[in-house]
Write a structure and sequence with these properties.
Blueprint lengths: L11 E2 L20 E3 L3 E2 L12 E3 L10 H6 L2 H11 L9 E5 L10 E6 L24 H20 L3 H7 L4 H9 L18 H14 L1 H14 L1 H6 L2 H13 L4 E4 L15 E4 L5 E12 L6 E11 L6 E11 L5 E3 L13 E12 L3 E2 L5 H37 L1 E2 L2 E2 L4 H29 L6 H26 L1 H4 L5 H8 L9 H20 L15 H4 L17 H6 L1 H5 L12 H30 L4 H29 L2 H10 L6
Parallel strand pairs: 1-3, 7-10
Antiparallel strand pairs: 2-4, 5-6, 8-9, 9-13, 10-11, 11-14, 12-13, 15-16
Helix pairs in contact: 2-3, 3-6, 6-7, 6-10, 6-11, 7-10, 10-11, 10-12, 11-12, 11-19, 11-20, 12-14, 12-15, 12-19, 15-19, 19-20
Pathway: Lipid metabolism; mitochondrial fatty acid beta-oxidation
Family: Belongs to the acyl-CoA dehydrogenase family.
Subunit structure: Homodimer. Homodimerizes after import into the mitochondrion.
Length: 669
Amino acid sequence: MVRVSGGTTVQVLLGSLGSISGLVPTLPDRHPKLWEIQGVLRGPSPPSVTEGATFHRVLPPYFVTDQKVRYSRNIKTVRKTCQQEACISSGSGFAHLDMEAPSEGRPGQPASGALLGGDAGKPNTGEDSGTSPLPSALSSEQAQLLQAVVDPCTRFFEEVNNAVANEELGSIEEETVEGLKSMGCFGLQVPEELGGIGLTNTQYARMVEVVGMHDLGVAIALGAHQSIGFKGILLFGNKSQKEKYLPRLASGEAYAAYCLTEPSSGSDAASIQTVAELSPCGGFYTLNGSKIWISNGGTAEVFTVFAKTRIKNITTGEETDKMSAFIVERAFGGVSSGPPEQKMGIQCSNTAEVHFEDVKVPAENLLGGLGKGFQVAMHILNNGRFGMAAAMAGTMRGVLLKAVDHAADRQQFGKAIGCFGAVQEKLAHMAMLLYVTEAMAYVLSANMDMKLPDYKLEAAISKIFASEAAWTVADEGIQILGGMGYMKESGLEKVMRDLRIFRIFEGTNEILRLFVALSGMEASQAIFGGQGGPCGQPTQDKQRPLRIGVPTGQTLQGLVHPELEDCAALVRDPAEAQQGGQLPLGILQFHLRRVADAAIDTYAMAVALSRASRTLFLGQPTAQHEKLLCQAWCQQVRQISATIQLSLEKSTSGTTMAWMNEHLPRQNP
């Protein structure tokens, strides 16, 4: 439930959610008409909430070209044009592309790039440069290139791709596949010299958001191909491996797949049974085993496969099994696939078992080093998770559009249902979830582009938050549409089925929550010296951190726009729920889940504050609306975090812990 201080009505902007470094457009309209929804406002300054508030949605700018040119436009040509037109400053090298406020009869247009001050990767308070801490990793040239490639891709998915036909066919229509190839969508992050487009993580996130808005099945097929399928070659491949495989994969001539999950090893990836044995001559490995639920498993020609290998300790002579990664081609022989799985959703993406029987894999196809397979596997997944958050943001945007359309059109009791508070509250909550998800996706991708060494925790949080937020938005969207939302005709039924898998694959949300919590526990152990009660009492001694020199009471005050200082003070609350003691690693998982939720809430507040603060510093036309979104979100999280802290305090009280120690089975650390 969305509430703000004093019980005032939540005023939320749906039409102008603002932009992150020029990446996220205003909520687009495909058919201009009036919105007449009380409390859902648009404009440079928010008017009071009045019944019948009226405003226009606007069309974003598109290329005015014939259809053939629009869809087959060579992105390399676009890049050259952008290089010629870009105004590269000698400043920090980072720029954003603002969107000018739309005027009557004219859609929003890109404004000139505004340089961000400060060093890349460092928080920027905006005091000197007029910007907020939200990171930006796009140069003027990159921003213009992004604007140039997103528009035709959007048109393509609106006018060529048919999500319903893809689902009925059980595969992606050939016309769509050829169109994706012509736009370079199979090699978005492959360097230009190897046949790809060479997009940054931030640019890639924006493209993924477009696909996620229109067809999650296609998004999975493309993501399984490049976000994880050949990502290992991109990240860990040597020069010869990259030159051999990436050009063919980037063109779409061959699909790639990531093969980790087995019948006996799901979340426990280290327990795989597939084996790769080195030949006596040392020239090849013999691969045997099976993988299940492999996206692109029946269509891929190139596989990143993880298998156990025997490794001998040079010092002791002892042999142990360690995971290694291999590049495997179907053409090697011995590779077979099962029939396509019959899934709940994402039905146009191929999912199948893959079997390896005496496959001879050349020794030079070892990827990332002998015994390094687990690190390779986890790094690929961590690196690819930012794309999932971006795709979820696109899906949420599409659902929100449908919900707002229906709320504006559907008449009950003599007025549009969007005039009623219950519907407004749902729309407000959906808008906030979209706003925060977008912020997470682009903060993460920008930090990756700025080469921050460790982002796996933020990536895990983004995946958890985005997949659950998208599910909530889809559910509320169906509820707003009522009976129509339950019908296939609305398209939301398909979205709901497609979304369900995102809380499961690439690490279940339960496993990732444990990872988030245990990451904090490791830091806590280092700080507190491993001390604590038999089951841990994280909130019992709140003065102990001060006694050992650990600061408390830290907030984001002074780092955000002055109008958001009150919200910045709230970030401390969920963070402090984790301080004051240590939770041993063997504690019950429902405690760890609550600790993880507190961390997720803290991060969600931080990115929302950063995004809204930057918009305020820059004086963008959506600033006041984003401020309202941020304030409402922080107030909601404050209430949730208070509940989490109370839950932790009660569950770790002496009486409760004594009962659990007596009656519940002990867990191994």
